Amino acid sequence: MINRLVWMETDNTYPYRNLAMEEYMTLHVPQGTCILYLWQNRHTVVIGKNQNCWRECRVNFLEQEDGYLVRRLSGGGAVFHDLGNLNFTFIVGAEDYDVSRQLDVILEAVRSLGIHAEKTGRNDITVEGRKFSGNAFYRTGDGCYHHGTILIRADKENMSRYLNVSKEKLASKGVTSVKSRVANLCEFKPDITLEEVKAALVEAFSRVYGQPAVRMKEEELPQLEIDVLTEKFASWQWKYGRKIPFEYEMEKRFPWGNIQIQLHVDEGVIQDVNVFSDAMDQEMFGALAKQLKGCGYAEEDICAAVEAVGPDAFQAEEHTGTDVPQSRQIKEDIKALVRESL
């Protein structure tokens, strides 16, 4: 039961530090406390934990223009951040984690500004069918977070320039470009400001949870521990991941997301694996890579490895709109991809 609300905002716009503070608070959130964390990144592309940065973003172009590539802990797809965008994170213990209630805070805040926002799909908030907020989720031990964007006056030209969004993904959304799919709140309320959106979020946070929120200062966090986490997020290994010499590749988009599997095979045995995905569940695909490494390069062996991925690898059991749980559907889809690829 939540008995304490805390909110914190930071003026820092260095993305690796912002993610470090987010992770630290998630690892140490007290039982019964819910934290609303407000933050901004400057000139940044943020990719999901399991994504191939070279596929999702024009990395060289971004870095030539002094931008930042960031890999977050949560799953999902790539997004562009600038100072026309506000990020929020709800941080709470697993027993009090309630995505629907958390989304209500965003919906109520935006509606209080005279903009009719709606939740659509798995993780988007829209106005008139156009997305201004994408959301993603993460759990570690007893701590969880739910974070997302709020596009206020983001530069959609840069968004289109830096992000490589597949034509297949755009078609699945019924649009032809990134710009046509997303909207800034200023398109619906021209005089909207960053500060009034922040204030509306804090007020809605208190209303939805039925108690006042206490402000926490960034200086209250242990700076040395934040520094260590900042270095992790800024490291080459974390940002770019591994490139492997692969001989075989299979890729397909499903309703739950895109999957790309690269296999390095020697003497009929899978020696190395990369699994990339923009699916929301970030743990499953790391578990899949571990199962595939060392198994035979044969349809039967690979399908058995997929089936062996245990239920613990799935963070949350979402349903697909049928009687088939999300975990089962993902496994069946991957096995079907293996059968058609080999």
TrEMBL record:
The answer on whether this UniProt entry bears the keyword Repressor reads: no
Q: Which GO terms describe its biological process?
A: protein lipoylation
The residue ranges of the BPL/LPL catalytic domain are 30-213
Pathway(s): Protein modification; protein lipoylation via exogenous pathway; protein N(6)-(lipoyl)lysine from lipoate: step 1/2; Protein modification; protein lipoylation via exogenous pathway; protein N(6)-(lipoyl)lysine from lipoate: step 2/2
Where does it sit, as one GO cellular component term? cytoplasm
* Pfam families in alphabetical order: Lip_prot_lig_C (PF10437), LplA-B_cat (PF21948)
- EC number(s) from the headed UniProt entry: 6.3.1.20
What's the protein name? lipoate--protein ligase
The record lists the organism as [Clostridium] clostridioforme 90A8
